[in-house]
Design a protein that fits this description.
The chain is α/β, with parallel strands linked by helices. The chain has 2 domains: 132 residues, no CATH class; 243 residues, Leucine Aminopeptidase, subunit E, domain 1, CATH 3.40.220. It is 40% helix and 14% strand. Strands 1, 2, 3, 6, 7, 8, 9 and 10 form an 8-stranded mixed beta sheet that branches. Strands 4-5 form a two-stranded antiparallel sheet. A hairpin with a 4-residue loop joins strand 7 and strand 8.
Length: 393
């Protein structure tokens, strides 16, 4: 097992490398990058250290792009494009001077080079460092799944399409063996299957759609609240070098939707699902956030009512919206992640939510088994209740 460098050390070395460029890599401090390349299995010693680091950066940018080819057009994630320009990773751009590389990266966001240097460039470098660490973990030589700092641990997999109508699919006590992925490759739950993991939803990686639970006014939780909505809002926000939020992406885009549809300050029908981009979560391979309006405020707004029927409607609408986005936005999406909707401030029992969600999810997978589903909860006890609900007659 090879040790992994810290995120801070990678950020420092990438900042030093950015203006110099890859041709000057041998003259840069690169101990953290070397450690990561060794852990990813991309270099074994001094002779291939430089090429290994370059391959590692290529793999990290590929990961930022969601595993798709990195192109310099709007079909590619802007974080990946800006990172590729910043470090000269596009073909024929390796030896381009640092000022020209920065100008090209700034053009991705449509800002001046000075604005980019002070704001977006810091985010790009930080996210590239995160992607480097993710590549090393996924290569299988850095840390085991149980040692990951994100705490993801797969508990069960259920084959939904194989279950006869009205019966729960079988649950196994562990994840099946997985082939070792190539660096930067997307990993996903097998098509047609439902998988349960103990994991905060904001730490999910390589799943196309994350579903957030919202109230019927589409008002996201405050970023300091321990809710799914607050956690995703916090994780998707773009920040400056001091960690201050400079773009509250999800809330801002929901506001645009409300103004466009004339619903500002007004409720939507329970079960409505609205899509936004994933903001900074794009660095984790997430493409879209679906906001499911399931909670109706009661009284002075401190309490919420969630109907079981609304849970099924939210599941159906999210799949429908995902298919629409795949077709009309040319986003090849096939995986979706749900929290235990309504079991938090909605007040519904976890067992009840689990049975309702599993039923709705199996219905959708019978209609379209090309999708894969991830159910997440930060509580192991809740995951076990989901497993029990899945195996119940």
């Amino acid at each position: 097992m090879h040790p992994l460098p810290s995120h801070e050390s990678l950020v420092a070395e990438l900042r030093d490398l950015r203006p110099r460029g890859l041709p000057e890599l041998r003259h840069c401090t690169r101990e953290a990058l070397r450690q990561a390349a060794v852990a990813a299995g991309l270099c074994a010693g001094p002779d291939d250290e430089l090429t290994g680091i370059e391959e590692l950066l290529d793999a990290a940018v590929l990961r930022l792009a969601g595993g798709r080819p990195v192109r310099d057009d709007d079909s590619c994630d802007p974080l990946a494009r800006a990172a590729a320009h910043s470090f000269g990773l596009f073909p024929g751009r390796r030896g381009v001077p640092g000022t020209d590389r920065r100008k090209a990266a700034a053009g991705v966001y449509g800002v001046t080079t000075e604005r980019f240097r002070k704001s977006q460039e810091r985010v790009v470098i930080a996210e590239l460092a995160s992607a480097v660490l993710a590549v090393t973990r996924e290569a299988g030589t850095g840390e085991s799944a149980d040692q990951r700092p994100d705490g993801i641990r797969e508990l069960a997999a259920a084959s939904a399409p194989a279950a006869p109508p009205g019966h729960a699919a079988p649950v196994t006590s562990g994840a099946p063996p997985r082939p070792r992925p190539r660096p930067g490759a997307r990993t996903a739950v097998p098509a047609g299957r439902i998988t349960v993991r103990v994991c905060p939803i904001e730490e999910v990686r390589d799943v196309d759609i994350l579903v957030s639970s919202e109230n019927t006014y589409l008002e996201m939780s405050k970023t300091f609240r321990p809710t799914v909505s607050g956690a995703l809002r916090r994780a998707a926000a773009l920040r400056d070098s001091a960690g201050e939020i400079v773009d509250d992406v999800l809330s801002r885009e929901l506001g645009v939707w409300q103004r466009t549809h004339g619903r500002t300050g007004m409720p939507v029908r329970p079960g409505t699902v609205v899509a936004t981009s994933s903001g900074a979560l794009a660095a984790q391979g997430v493409r879209r956030i679906h906001h499911a309006a399931i909670a109706t405020p009661v009284g002075d707004g401190d309490r919420y009512h969630v109907s079981l029927a609304v849970l099924g409607e939210a599941v159906r609408m999210s799949f429908e919206l995902g298919r629409h986005e795949s077709e009309f936005l040319s986003l090849p999406m096939s995986s979706i992640c749900f929290p235990l909707l309504g079991s938090g401030r909605g007040g519904l029992p976890v067992e009840t939510v689990a049975r309702r969600l599993l039923g709705a999810l199996r219905d959708e997978l019978r209609r379209d088994p090309s999708w894969s589903v991830l159910l997440v909860t930060p509580e192991e006890s809740h995951a076990r209740l989901v497993m029990a609900a899945s195996s119940a007659p």
